[in-house]
Design goal:
CATH architecture of the largest domain in chain A: 3-Layer(bba) Sandwich
Number of strands of chain A: 34
Strand content of chain A: 15-25%
CATH topology of the largest domain in chain A: FAD/NAD(P)-binding domain
CATH class of the largest domain in chain A: Alpha Beta
Number of domains of chain B: 2
Helix content of chain B: 40-55%
Number of helices of chain A: 18
Shape of chain B: globular
Oligomer: heterodimer
Largest sheet of chain B: 4 strands, parallel
CATH superfamily of the largest domain in chain A: FAD/NAD(P)-binding domain
CATH architecture of the largest domain in chain B: 3-Layer(aba) Sandwich
Number of strands of chain B: 8
Number of helices of chain B: 12
Structural class of chain A: alpha/beta
Largest sheet of chain A: 5 strands, parallel
Largest interface: A-B, 9 and 9 residues
Radius of gyration of chain B: 19 Å
Order of helices and strands of chain B: EHEHHEHHEHEHEHEHHEHH
Helix content of chain A: 25-40%
Radius of gyration of chain A: 31 Å
């Protein structure tokens, strides 16, 4: 005979405000099989959990229903409490009176009636629950880090230093990401390359780290602890084993007019190239789209001059399969394309540039050797206008959110410009200055007070190029309450930070969620900021939301800690919500085997004592089954059930609603 | 034969006579019948919406209701201001049943919303689709023009549809077909001073001067417009601008329909090209 205990939580006022909890408690107490029904303000608190534990022991409960919030957050909490009191944790169920009831209804009487229904459903289910036991699966103590920018480098280093193996995959030919392109970094103005390149070298030399550049993730199978990832190594056409990085090939390559991605189009590169001189690995690749040999079948100069014979025009993309236990996604960001702003010249005015282009102009290793010279004629601009929030906070044509880092890097740009061009004017248009962070507001004050940047509060409505080459910038000074027109030589737009193109496809491969803007979603915005809703997949850096370097590095270390935590046990417990085939009823039609999206069902031969095959049936591999229930739905002979969600349980839930 | 409703408004009977003439001549060549709405009234432009919002909607509402009663499903409003007021009214009415009810009360007329309003640019595009493209037998010899949209042919996202309000290009196709070379310039959507031509002429002088200057610097030999207000500010006020010590300018301001008419071989006098303040007959020589 079932002995069920029902525990109703007020969730402070979250449930109690809309649902009459004492009335639900009383109604639940009258349900058949219920021997205990109580309510409490915070059931998840220590005294609340203690109530459940005491009742399990004192009333010898065979099942528990906690009517509270979504099981997403606290089901593990309550099941742990049940287990501590000696009850199999899978004999505890939750009825969601918050998200499914109090938060979405207003009428107290109706909400209370619904709450009673929700409790009754779960009481009927829990009466039919069976004891289940967690499935133990081995953990592969290797992490895959996707993205070789500063976040990916940091995560890889932390995991490697924790003693575990790391595979670091980067889609471009070199590690370094955007940070390698920056001049100096706020708020301390230390040289970006000087602090980054040692890290690049360190991660590449680390015995626990395998670097795969010019490679992309092609397929992800498996689950936490046991992912099987297919990585596509793009054809490099240069054998990295033979190449010494001498650079003769790119000096001689005749295709020299390809806009450099690294220099944001301000300089050209060759078809065989390394993105920048400090690249890691410092081995060139051939850009197949621009190589004369690979497009037209003639040239081959690089192969002729290469002293080690490293060039291989026959190279092809290869797929490599790796087994990893955890995945850190650190794919970063890109800049919003300001050609959507017709009033700013629709991206067609040469001297209206974006933040990365200014970074390259200000970089010692950049196309101008660190001198600020404008792209159109190479002149040193005497008036530079910086425009913040270009595309950010523009619901109509840009993005709704604040890109977070632009206030700071614009202040940095203004400072760098004033340091380099003493008689130049740096004028910054801003909506408001958001400089939250250690030493950040002080840095903006420094730009204004010590370095003489002129901050104008207001939006720029128009930029055009006058016949004499001057850029006319018209806007509003909303503090002075007047229109302003500035004759500028260079305009720098602080374009919004947006997720990488193709990020959605990667998310679908990984089974992780992304928000309306395309940024990857964390499992909980406050309490689980580096985990995703998919166990074993963690986030680091700007792929989750716009972030500066300190925040990206901090999150990367946090993601590494999560991965190391996962690797600290050789085995992992999995919820035993798996499909089970009734082998006496199975007719071996193989419908389930074909339908299973995870390949978790296999043929199984039943043999007699002598080893002769008597019958063949379908059998579920518990380690691979994800409990999705597809096989249950397709089974023609009704021979498959899902542990924890059997037909009997689900039908009982429905039946009680009549 | 296609029949379109026609709403000339006050401009086309006054300062914008050339627009009226050239539109009608062009429709003639393209085989389109223009049927003027009988008993039409003022569209309310320039003044009404500054004074009384109900009046600003009620005036076009009555015209729309009349057009519907007279069986006209599409109305050409060549004046950019008339177009904006009338199309804006259809948009507002479609959004609010309450407003429809109110207007019905004020005007004591029914309007079911079956009328579509065409601008001069929509109209020329339509003619090009139908048969005008083949009839451009006397194209210009690469006359360099600055297409000028001003505010009313570029703004109002539900009103001017399918074009970029900051970098419009809707005139380009017809102008290119007429043999014009389009110069890249900066002031295609800048304000000409609009309705302040009489009340704040100083503002018009400054704003229109900037437009003329930019077009000249871009190498334009003429500005092409679709709006009678822009036309009068740029054409009629050009002398005032010069007298104010700006410029000096000597830039013909022509309507889109005049350019297309020339290319279609219509006599310049029938297009009203001889009626301009700044001599526009010089562009006539440029057509084959």
């Amino acid at each position: 005979m079932a002995r069920v205990g029902v525990f109703i939580c007020h969730c402070g006022e979250n449930i109690g405000r809309t649902v009459d909890c004492p009335a639900v408690t009383e109604a639940a107490g009258r349900l058949p099989g219920v021997v205990e029904s109580v309510d409490y303000k915070y059931m998840c608190s220590d005294p609340g959990q203690q109530m459940i534990k005491n009742a399990i022991k004192e009333k010898r409960l065979t099942g528990v229903v906690v009517a509270a919030c979504s099981p997403r957050m606290h089901e593990p909490t309550f099941r742990r409490a049940a287990a501590e009191a000696g009850l199999n944790p899978f004999l505890l169920e939750m009825a969601n009176l918050r998200e499914h009831c109090s938060w979405v209804h207003e009428d107290r009487n109706e909400a209370t009636a619904k709450a009673v229904d929700l409790v009754r459903i779960m009481v009927e289910k829990v009466k039919r629950n069976a004891k289940l036991h967690p499935i133990r699966v081995p953990v592969e103590p290797t992490a895959l880090v996707i993205g070789g920018g500063i976040a990916g480098i940091q995560a890889a280093l932390d995991i490697a230093n924790g003693g575990k193996k790391v595979i670091l995959v980067e889609k471009s030919p070199s590690l370094g990401g955007h940070m390698a392109r920056l001049s100096e970094t706020f708020p301390t103005l230390d040289c970006s390359q000087c602090i980054l390149t040692p890290r690049m070298v360190e991660v590449a030399a680390h015995p626990n780290v395998t670097i795969m550049t010019y490679a992309e993730v092609a397929k992800v199978d498996g689950f936490v602890g046991n992912f099987e990832v297919t990585i596509r190594q793009k054809a490099r056409y240069v054998d990295p084993e033979k190449c010494t990085g001498c650079g003769t090939c790119y000096q001689k390559c005749p295709s020299k007019k390809i806009p450099s991605e690294f220099d944001a189009g301000l300089a050209n590169r060759t078809a065989i190239y390394t993105p920048f001189p400090q690249a890691v690995p410092n081995k060139p690749v051939i850009d197949a789209q621009h190589c004369l040999m690979l497009t037209k079948g003639k040239c081959g100069v690089c192969a002729k001059v290469c002293p080690t014979g490293a060039i291989n025009f026959e190279d092809t993309d290869r797929e490599v399969k790796v087994k990893v236990g955890a995945i850190v996604v650190a794919t970063g960001f890109e800049l919003w394309d300001h050609s959507a702003y017709g009033e700013y010249g629709a991206g067609k005015i040469e001297d209206v540039i974006d933040g990365f282009q200014f970074e390259r102009l200000a970089s010692a290793g950049g196309p101008t050797g660190g001198e600020i010279r404008r792209p159109s004629d190479g002149e040193i601009p005497k008036t530079v206008v910086f425009i913040q929030c270009c595309g950010s906070r523009d619901e109509k044509r840009g993005v709704l959110y604040c890109s977070k880092i632009c206030c700071m890097y614009t202040a940095k740009h203004a400072i760098l410009y004033r340091h380099k061009v003493h008689d130049g004017r740096a004028i910054v248009f801003y909506m408001d200055v958001r400089a939250g962070g250690k030493g950040y507001d002080e840095f903006v004050r420094r730009a204004i007070e010590a370095d003489g940047a002129e901050y104008v509060r207001g939006r720029v409505s128009r930029i055009y190029r006058r016949a004499d080459g001057k850029l006319i910038v018209r806007g509003a000074d909303t503090l002075a309450g007047q229109a302003v027109t500035i004759e500028a030589d260079l305009v720098v737009l602080a374009d919004a930070i947006v997720p990488r193109a193709g990020g959605n496809e990667l998310a679908q491969m990984l089974g992780i969620a992304y928000d309306t803007n395309g940024f990857y979603s964390e499992a909980h915005p406050k309490l689980r900021p580096v985990e995703t809703a998919t166990a074993g997949v963690f986030l680091a850096g700007a792929c989750q939301s716009p972030k500066d370097i300190p925040d990206s590095v901090a999150q990367a270390s946090a993601a590494a800690a999560k991965a190391l935590g996962l690797f600290s046990n050789p085995e992992l417990e999995r919820e035993p919500i798996v499909a089970r085939v009734n082998e006496e009823m199975c007719v071996h039609c193989r419908a389930c085997i074909n339908a299973c999206p995870y390949g978790a069902i296999e043929d199984y031969d039943i043999t007699d004592r002598k080893g002769n095959v008597v019958r063949t049936v379908a059998r579920v591999n518990e380690g691979v089954c994800q409990g999705c229930g597809t096989c249950v739905a397709v089974c023609r002979s009704n021979s498959i059930d899902l542990d924890g969600f059997t037909d009997e349980q689900v039908l009982a839930e429905i039946a009680t609603l009549e | 034969m296609t029949t379109l409703g026609y709403y000339p408004g006050c401009s086309l009977h006054g300062t914008g006579r050339e627009l009226d003439m050239s539109i009608k001549a062009l429709a003639d060549v393209a085989g389109v019948e223009l049927k003027e709405i009988e008993d039409w009234n003022c569209c309310g432009a320039s003044a009404a919406h500054n004074l009384n919002h109900d009046l600003a909607v009620a005036l076009p509402y009555r015209n729309l209701a009349l057009a519907e009663e007279q069986g006209l499903s599409e109305i050409l409003a060549p004046c950019a201001a008339c177009f904006s007021r009338m199309k804006g009214t259809t948009v507002r009415l479609a959004r609010s049943a309450e407003l429809v009810e109110k207007m019905r009360g004020i005007t004591e007329r029914e309007f079911k919303g079956t009328v579509r309003i065409l601008s001069i640019i929509d109209f020329i595009g339509r003619l090009m689709d139908e048969s005008l493209a083949e009839k451009l037998t006397s194209p210009l010899d690469g006359l360099r023009v600055a297409p000028y949209y001003g505010c009313l042919l570029s703004r109002g996202e539900d009103i001017v549809e399918g074009d970029d309000p900051e970098q419009p290009s809707a005139m380009d196709r017809a102008l290119a077909a007429a043999g014009c070379e389009i110069v890249p310039w900066n002031f295609a959507v800048e304000c000409c001073g609009g309705g302040f031509s009489m009340s704040m002429t100083d503002a018009v002088v400054d704003l229109s001067n900037a437009i003329l200057t930019d077009a000249e610097q871009a190498g334009a030999e003429a500005i092409v417009t679709g709006c009678p207000m822009c036309h009068s500010n740029l054409d009629m006020r050009q002398r005032t601008i010069n007298e104010a010590g700006l410029g000096p300018h000597d830039l013909p301001i022509v309507y889109l329909s005049e350019i297309l008419g020339l290319a279609a071989g219509i006599e310049p006098e029938r297009l009203g090209l001889d009626r301009h303040f700044v001599d526009a007959m010089r562009v006539v020589e440029r057509s084959a």
